[in-house]
Every structure is written in C-alpha cells, then in structure tokens.
Amino acid sequence: MLSGLLLAAAPRSYPGAPAALKTAAVKDLDAASAKYRDVAQQIWGFAEVGYKEKRSSALLQQLLRDNGFAVEAGVADIPTAFVATYGSGQPVIGLLAEFDALPGLSQQATPSKQPVAGQDAGHGCGHHLFGTASVAAGVELKQLMAQGKFKGTIKVYGTPAEEGGSGKVYMVRAGLFKGVDAVIHWHPANENRTMLNNYLANSSAKFRFRGVSAHAAMSPERGRSGLDGVEAMNHMVNMMREHVPQETRIHYVITGGGKAPNVVPDFAEVYYYVRHPKKDDVKAIFARVVKAAEGAALGTGTTMEYEVIGGTHDLLLNQTLAQVLQQNLQRVGGVRYTEAERSFGQQIQASLGFPAPPLDAASQIGPYTLHEGGGSTDVGDVSYVVPTVGLEAATWVPGTAAHSWQAVACGGTEIGSKGMLVAAKTMTLTGLDLFTTPSLLRQAQEEHRRNVGSYQYQPLLGNRPPALNYRD
C-alpha cells in the first residue's frame, strides 16, 4: 500500500478532458437529477438485503438497457449480479454499483427514530444511492461516447451483498474484471473526500456447535450443550484479544442459542468477523479463532463445523487515479442545504448524542490525506486486479455514522440525493479524463503493478460458492 508520506503532498494537476466536455456532462446530470433521485428512492423503499436484491438489481439493469447497454445478468453464479457494457475496444473503464441494505435498520425518512411498519431492513450504508449514482455516471459517459467525444468501453458492474457477503470477490474470481484498465467507485458518507482509506482485510465465518438435547433440570447429565460450545469459544477468543496485533478487530454475534432455558440446546451458532490491515495477518488470526472453536468443542463434548461466509482484501490505493479524482471532486464541489434541509439536519444531529461538525461542512471538500480506516470492503479484491479509485460524498448530515437509523433517514431525503449527484458528477468527470488521456492510464497501471508486486491474487474465501443465503 502507499505510505502516508506519498500522500502528504498536494495532488498534481492533470490536463485531462476538455473543460467544455466536463461542463456539458455536469449540465446533463443536473437535468436528469430528478429521474435518478426517483430510482434511488425506489431502491431505498425496497431495502433488500445481500443476495436478495431482486427488485433493486432489476431496476438498475432496466435503466441501463433503456440507455443502450448490453446487460449480462446472473454473473458469477449470483442471481442479482450483472455486468452492463457499452462501446468496444480500449480503454475499458469500469464503474461499481452496490444496492444491498442492512438487516435491523428499518427507518422512515424522519429526523426521529421511526421504523417502517412490517419492514426489518434499511439502507444504513446508502447503497441505494451508490448503485444509482454509478449507473447515472455510466449512462452519461455512454451518451457522450455515442456523440463521438471519445472511444472505448464502459462497464457498469452490479455488485450485490457488499455487507458481509463479499459479492465482488466472486466476480473477481470469475474473471469479470480481466481486461479492464481502471475502476471507479464511491461510497455514501457524511463528508466529501477522495477515498484514501486504509480499509481492513476481513475473514468471516459461522461456527456451528452440535450436542445432545436433554431436560435441563431432570437429566442435565445426559445433555451436551451447543451453547456451551459457543460460549466457551467466545471466552477463549476474548482472552486471545490480548495476544493479537493491536490493529486487529474481532466481532461476533450469537445467531442461534437454543429456544427454551429448560432444554439443553443441541445446536448453537456464532457468526465471526476477523479484521486486520494486512491480509496475511487476517489468515493467521482467523486460524487461531478456528483453533479456539475446536478446543471449545473438545471441552464441552460437542462437535463443531464452520462455514466461511466471506473474505475480503485490504484496499490498494492508486495515487495517480486519486489525484485525478481529487481534482474533479474539487471542481464539482460539495452539498448545500435548503433551510428545510438544515432544519432536518439539525434534528438529526441533536439525536446523535455528541457534538457534530457544522452543517456547512457538507459543502466542503476534504483535504488530500490518508485516513485510517476501520471497516472492510470487497472493493479491496477489485483493487488487487485492476487500478481502482473512489470517493466519499456527503449523503448524510455531518456527524452521522454509517449503519445507523440516522443514515437511513437522511438517505431517504433530498439530503441523500444531493450527495449522490456529487458522486455521479465526480465519477463521470474522472471517467472522461481516463477515456481522453491515455497517459493517465499508463501511469495508473504502472503504479498498480508496483503496489501488487509479486503477489498472486487468491480470494480469502477460497473456492466456496456464493453464500446466497447468508442473511437467512
């Protein structure tokens, strides 16, 4: 990965695409903003979780088909994944489009916590905006290509189940990014900046313990508790935290622990994430977690099996592409709120429980500096096989955390749509630079080769098929 020293200097200025072409693209996107807002809000309402995004994926696919793209659906053995293609020849520029929601985050577009009746999931990470903005950028680039402004190939990748399902990993493994010269992506956030995050590599699995049922009072000696196995594993892993690298993050939830206190549970399940900035350390730490599970089963007289659910690489940064994107993000500018939106935002901030940055921070562009990450993304796997660059745009009011009801609420309003348009414009302008300036792609690819070095990409989730039911 790039060092902080390399990222300390101000980004270089590149000539890129003609200014008139960029101005026309921005005007086109402004004119079409209501259409894309409506698409995003439909997906916000669908709120479909990973690998279940049938309506969300179909809506984006149809929008691309209506605009002249050839769409291949169900790629990489994933029903909701797709690749939409327009044009031919080099260069080939890819755009990533996510659209999965999160379980347990149902929320109306209100500044107070109010779940949607009868709905469990919500777009707490803003992927309804993510997928729509990427499609908008792809359509705008297609329109300009059709006018003869430049040549090449545009690919929009519909990438399901980013939230723990590792959808892009299967798409990389299937070779869908071969021959692509660069990939552009973005993510909803509470600020506007080029994505220079130190994202963590991640391995996840469900550990299942099986024992023997018995009456917990009358014949406990006959039982062997699957829940005891889970609790013993969790205890050992929690002790292990003292003896792992300090950057390590380990999380778990018990997804099954029995049904009644007076029945010794013959089955229990716990779902684990293991993260670290380096993929090799993730492998080693995950192996220790497995050993803890094996010891727990031995000590409780149960049996244990585990299923790898996901695994993602850390994110390789590409300074050549990041400098281009930063220049375009500064050209586009941030988000400005109306008085009604400011009132909404103030109520959201009041619910956070801590002092938030001023609302006007959403109109600013963050500096070009490296940020310490804490999360993981399957974009990391894409970045190991093709030069990749991304941005964050203020789709939530400043101070709002991802994976919160406040993020869901903002994403259901014009606050989210305005940030989405910042992302669509920035990706489009960056795509124009890459299509019209071959030297940029050559530099980005040379940098990518240096960053990857001798490493031969291998998915951290191995050869398993897509975990299509991991949200069940």
Describe the structure.
The chain is an alpha/beta fold. It folds into 2 domains: 19-198 and 314-452, 3-Layer(aba) Sandwich (Aminopeptidase); 201-312, Alpha-Beta Plaits, CATH 3.30.70. The protein is built from 13 helices and 13 strands. The protein has helices at residues 19-31, 33-46, 54-66, 127-146, 167-173, 226-240, 279-300, 319-332, 339-350, 379-383, 405-411, 414-436, 438-452; strands at 70-73, 82-88, 92-97, 152-158, 182-189, 193-194, 197-198, 201-210, 249-256, 267-276, 303-312, 371-372, 388-394. It has a 7-stranded mixed sheet with strand order 1-2-4-3-5-13-6. It has a 4-stranded antiparallel sheet with strand order 9-10-8-11. A two-stranded parallel sheet has the order 7-12. A hairpin with an 8-residue loop joins strand 1 (70-73) and strand 2 (82-88). Helix 1 (19-31) packs antiparallel against helix 12, helix 2 runs antiparallel to helix 3 (54-66) and helix 2 (33-46) packs antiparallel against helix 4 (127-146). Residues 1-6 have low confidence and may be disordered. Keywords: Hydrolase. Residues 204-296 form the Peptidase M20 dimerisation domain. It holds the Pfam family Peptidase_M20. InterPro entries: Amidohydrolase, Aminobenzoyl-glu_utiliz_pB, Bact_exopeptidase_dim_dom, Peptidase_M20, Peptidase_M20/M20A_hydrolases, Peptidase_M20_dimer. This is M20 family metallopeptidase.
Topology diagram in text:
Blueprint (H helix, E strand, L loop, with lengths): L18 H13 L1 H14 L7 H13 L3 E4 L8 E7 L3 E6 L29 H20 L5 E7 L8 H7 L8 E8 L3 E2 L2 E2 L2 E10 L15 H15 L8 E8 L10 E10 L2 H22 L2 E10 L6 H14 L6 H12 L20 E2 L6 H5 L4 E7 L10 H7 L2 H23 L1 H15 L20
Parallel strand pairs: 3-4, 3-5, 5-13, 7-12
Antiparallel strand pairs: 1-2, 2-4, 6-13, 8-10, 8-11, 9-10
Helix pairs in contact: 1-12, 2-3, 2-4, 2-12, 3-4, 4-12, 6-7, 8-12
